[in-house]
Amino acid sequence: MDALREYLPVLLPVIIIELALAVMALVHVLRHPHYKTGNRVLWVIVVLFVQIIGPIAYFVFGREDS
């Protein structure tokens, strides 16, 4: 438990950034019908289950520019 308290100041910003990215990517996936690659179900799974890399991958590879 002491180790968790020791690393909490470092982990807390990372957790907040990860959650913010996931929420932004998920909202974008659900609102937009067109993607460069894949479909809506694929991107929802990637965004939710591949932690930090999933939302970043969506914004780089899946998001279609309007």
Would you kindly provide a written description of the structure presented here, covering whatever features stand out?
It is built from 3 helices and no strands. With 66 residues, the chain is mainly α. The chain starts with a helix and ends with a helix. The model has no long low-confidence stretch (mean pLDDT 89).
What layout of secondary structure does this protein have?
Layout: H1 2-31, H2 40-49, H3 53-62
Helix pairs in contact: 1-2, 1-3, 2-3
Q: Give the SSE order as H and E letters.
A: HHH
Radius of gyration, rounded? 14 Å
Average of per-residue pLDDT values: 89
* Spatial shape: elongated
Oligomer: single chain
Question: What's this, in brief?
Answer:
With 66 residues, the chain is mainly alpha-helical. It has 3 helices and no strands. It has helices spanning 2-31, 40-49, 53-62.
Main traits of this protein?
66 residues, mainly alpha
